Amino acid sequence: MNELQKELTSQLQKFCQSKIEPHIEHDDANENFRMEIFQELGALGFCGMTISDQYGGAGLGYSDFCIALEEIAKHSPSYAVTISVSTMVQGIIEKFGNEDQKQKYLPALTSGQVIGAFCLSESGSGSDAKALKTTAKRTEGGYILNGSKMWITSAGIAKTYVVMARTGGEGAGGVSAFIVEDGIEGFSYGKKEKKMGWKVSPTREILFQNCFVPEENLIKAEGEGFKVALGGLDAGRVTIGSIANGISARALSESVRYSLERQQFDQPIFNFQGLQFMMADMATELEAARLLVEKAASLLDAGEVPSKLCSMAKLKATDVCMKVTTDAVQIHGGVGYTAEYPVERLMRDAKVLQIVEGTNQIQRVVIARHLKKEN
Ligand SMILES: Cc1cc2nc3c(=O)[nH]c(=O)nc-3n(C[C@H](O)[C@H](O)[C@H](O)COP(=O)(O)OP(=O)(O)OC[C@H]3O[C@@H](n4cnc5c(N)ncnc54)[C@H](O)[C@@H]3O)c2cc1C
After folding, report:
1. What number does the ligand 1 atom closest to the CA of 154 have?
2. What distance in Å separates the CA atoms of residue 115 and residue 83, rounded to the nearest whole number?
3. How confident is the model over 219-262, as pLDDT tens digits?
4. Which of 158, 237, 317, 332 is the most buried (most CB within 10 A)?
5. Residue 265 pLDDT more than 90?
6. Mean pLDDT for the stretch of residues 101-121
7. Domain 227-374 in the same topology as domain 117-222
């Protein structure tokens, strides 16, 4: 870590200890998102880290952003994912939006005053996202959207939505991307999902019923929407990897601490080689995952489109996270299965990382596709 990254980590550690940790169990049990925490993180510059300072961002790289997200995720994967998705939406607007769209939407997002959400998935199209059915029919001065989106992170608390809808025929070429503002006529929320983890981050369905979106909210051009969505997902996958690393790091430190305290057979359970080997493997796998995330992030920072490596980083870090958190519960024995210790929550928060932003099967499909192309 360079000096700036060390400083960011220490600042976030103090913030999360004082502002997030005191409420973590209550908020997890009550599915309570605190907008003021998000906005304070925004005021500190963490809600638009990779966006240019011209639009209020911090103008930093994905290498820095991933380190910040890892630190936040040690305390709350839910706030980390809210920031990660909101920043992905900003990245899409900055990369593909026109100047008016950037000026209008980015400053409120980068400052953390409002949250951004990414709306691609539908009930019938998750992995096969290009099969989406929400329509956007051209009308005078804009488009009329009809349909619904499923599992949208931050739906209900976000104000700025990037929505993929069909303006043309079947397949990826018929998809366009729009910026949709919360509160407009014909835009509403469906049920909030009851989830296993990420309890503080709300996930909801979004409904469009004859929802008029002005033509100035079309991103890039008609038919470019699937490329726009994929353009955001590469970076999104790396940031999901860094959130996984944060959860793994916390699970490992909790395991070392507990095993040094807990006595069985008149000694700390840490003394048993069976557990030492588990923790040695957890630490080694976490470092391997970190290296992949760092490499993918540094290529993104160099302006490359390292899709294969982004998929590898997401795949490795999230699979490691699931294994590490499961082993952390095992090391804690019976109490690990209760809400009394954080490892139970960490294991629940880990699972969804293998599903979002492309399941880990889909990451393998992407990697294999690259292998074939490179041959
Ligand atoms: C908490 C949460 C938050 C989310 N947030 C968002 C969000 O903000 N925005 C958004 O757009 N979406 C979001 N999603 C949706 C998420 O991206 C999808 O759930 C995911 O892409 C998988 O789609 P699916 O659930 O339809 O599963 P399916 O596509 O039905 O997959 C079911 C199973 O089949 C496997 N499978 C499918 N196709 C293949 C294949 N070709 N090869 C091998 N295996 C395959 C999958 O890996 C999986 O194991 C979120 C989901 C959750 C749970």
Report:
1. 8
2. 8
3. 999 999 999 999 889 999 999 999 999 999 999 999 999 999 99
4. 317
5. yes
6. 98
7. no
Q: Name the percent of the chain lying above pLDDT 90.
A: 98
- The residue annotated as part of the active site, out of 122, 254, 344, 357, is 357
225-229-232-234 Cα dihedral, nearest 10 degrees? -130
Query: What is the distance in A from the centroid of ligand 1 to the CA of 81?
Result: 16
- The CATH class of the 117-222 domain is mainly beta
**330 close to 374: Cβ distance less than 8 angstroms:** no
Q: Which one of 3.40.50.2000, 3.30.40.10, 1.20.140.10, 1.10.540.10 gives the CATH number of domain 3-115?
A: 1.10.540.10
Supply the pLDDT for residue 305. Answer: 87
Q: What fold, for 227-374?
A: Butyryl-CoA Dehydrogenase, subunit A; domain 3 (1.20.140)
pTM, two decimals, is 0.97
Check if 25 is active-site: no
As a whole number of angstroms, the distance between CA 304 and CA 297 comes to 10
Whether 1 is in the pocket of ligand 1, judged by its Cβ within 6 Å, is no
CA of 362 to the centre of ligand 1 (A): 9
Locate the domains of the chain by residue range.
3-115, 117-222, 227-374
Within 13 A of 325's CA, how many CA atoms are on the CB side? 28
198 lines ligand 1 (CB under 6 A): yes
**Is pLDDT at 352 greater than 90 in this prediction?**
yes
